[in-house]
Amino acid sequence: MTAGSLAWFARHELRLSWRDTLSMLTAGRRKREPAVAVAVVAFILFLHGIAFLILGQTAEHDVRADLPTLIAVSAAMLLSGSAMLSQAMESVTRAFYSRSDLELILSSPAPAHRLFAVRIGAIALSVGTMSLLFTAPFIDVLVLRDGWRWLGAYAAIFAVAMIATALAVLLTLALFDAIGPKRTRFAAQVAAAIIGAAFVIGIQIAAMLSTGSLSRAAFLHSPAVIAHAPALRSLFWWPARAALGDGICLLILISAGAGLFLGVTLRAAPRFADCALAAGSVARDMPTRRHSHRSFRLHTAPRALRRKEWLLLVRDPWLMSQSLMQLLYLLPPAALLCRSFSAQGSARLVLVPVLIMAAGQLAGGLAWLAISGEDAPDLVLTAPVTLAQLWRAKIEAVLASVGIVFAPFIAGLLFLAPSLALIAAFGITASAASAAAIQFCFRAQAKRAQFRRRHTSSRIATFSEAFSSITWAAAGAVAAAGSWLASIVALVAVGIVAAARMLSPSRAKYA
């Protein structure tokens, strides 16, 4: 195999992808590989079981390409396509800013456009494979129950993946041309998060405002949607017909996806080298900031530590894409809250567990960044403060950040139902504090860039944090319903945190 050829670069990317995936699953511990393999197989079988339970009765009869079916399949493809586009944009942006091997490869005599052509192809393969992880079980069940024609859905997914990757490349390059490499990293993260959540959030908001329920399926099959849908013979339904096994539509979809992908790759790959160099020199090209003449202010140690944590969270280059999705999913509860001002009902009760669950998830991520993602732990330990003050300041900074995010929701509930506002406030505080406490118990030195892989460091911490948020949300829901059983559920949540603390390894370095 000739060095610098497309096949050589493809093998290089395949090796890096395999190592990255294996490291993410095993947290860098090779002894975990057999257990991880068993877990992956069990997870795949579990997904097939869920798909069989959902589609078992539906697939007993021949699935026809009628209007409700085309609407459901089109919605699924739009949901998958938006997620692919979001993931592809984030992957393209990380290829510019986070790949440490770019300078080495660009300085070699190998043609750079071949490398970037392979990486664009790798992104398309990655987003298509990730989508198949959750859609393949449903396709397999449909193939088993309704015939081989459903195998065309596999090809349709990869065609959508090629289209999504091509659009992601075009959007990222357009951002580079419009606002420059310095602002593209932030803008691309925001755009990726919005694109990834726009469709599902839009359907949820539309369902809440039109039907007053959280069911997307009920909204998609509502008479209003069916009445305003395009005609049965419209070109709009061709992608859905391709997924349903229509050979002509499938061929057209694959040809369109492959043509767009190849055209964008041939045009964009030569430009990627200049964009990567520009992105790598952002720090060197940043203009010198003018120093203000403000006098130096002396703060107490806890306040200085909290301010330092807030500055780190604000300046984190990848925090936007990592946490913005969680914040965007608060829009449907906000829409439901606004609707509750004009329409009384029990729908507002749904807000309480949703807000509590979201608070726990957000607090867990921020706590990991503040506690385990400290990039200069030795420097911080030299500060004239005790360890108790240090950890207290970090936890306070995290809880204050969560409080700022959820304060508008509590204020809105306070006007609607003060009792629900008090329940939500207590649940949000308890869920966020529990998640932060679990991250504190399982603290381990890591880099902030490893935020996406934090769940692989400790499975116990991952499951404890998830179960804690779920249990506090359940306690909030039971309390909102007016049952005294909420206290029992809350005790279970406290027990989960206590069990996590008992199972946490000793940290002699921080003791």
Summarize the structure.
The protein is mainly alpha-helical and 511 residues long. Helices cover 76% and strands 0% of the residues.
What does this structure look like?
This protein is mainly α and 511 residues long. It contains 20 helices and no strands. The protein has helices spanning 6-26, 33-55, 67-97, 102-106, 112-146, 152-210, 216-220, 223-228, 238-243, 247-280, 282-285, 301-315, 319-328, 331-342, 351-371, 377-381, 387-416, 418-441, 459-480, 486-503. Helix 5 runs antiparallel to helix 10 (247-280), helix 12 (301-315) packs across helix 17 and helix 15 (351-371) runs antiparallel to helix 17 (387-416). The longest helix is centred in the middle third of the chain and has 59 residues, at 152-210. Residues 283-292 and 506-511 have low confidence and may be disordered.
Strand fraction: under 5%
Overall morphology = globular
Helix content: over 70%
Give the biggest sheet. Answer: none
Low-pLDDT sequence parts: 283-292, 506-511
Features:
single chain; 76% helix; mainly alpha; 0% strand
Task: Spell out the blueprint of helices and strands.
Blueprint: H1 6-26, H2 33-55, H3 67-97, H4 102-106, H5 112-146, H6 152-210, H7 216-220, H8 223-228, H9 238-243, H10 247-280, H11 282-285, H12 301-315, H13 319-328, H14 331-342, H15 351-371, H16 377-381, H17 387-416, H18 418-441, H19 459-480, H20 486-503
Helix pairs in contact: 1-5, 2-5, 3-5, 3-6, 5-6, 5-10, 6-10, 6-13, 6-14, 12-17, 14-17, 15-17, 15-18, 15-19, 17-18, 18-19, 18-20, 19-20
